[in-house]
Design brief:
alpha+beta, two-stranded parallel ribbon
Length: 66
């Protein structure tokens, strides 16, 4: 996302249920990639947030606190 000059980044993935049900292993890889990206951007001093929206929180993914 370096091509977009911004103070931070937000990725919102809506309706993850289909991907999670059809490809749980690939979904787990997707989550790992997102985590690595967030850490990498944080190390560079740039905030990044990835939000996943679905019926329930996937294993290993924290729910947002109200």
């Amino acid at each position: 996302m370096e091509w977009v000059d911004a103070p931070g980044y937000l990725i919102y993935y809506d309706n993850i249920d289909g991907l999670l049900a059809a490809h749980p292993d690939q979904f787990a890889t997707f989550v790992e990639i997102c985590r690595d990206a967030v850490v990498s951007w944080k190390e560079d001093g740039t905030p990044m947030v990835v939000l996943l929206s679905g019926a329930k929180a996937p294993k290993g993914v924290a729910k947002l606190k109200e």
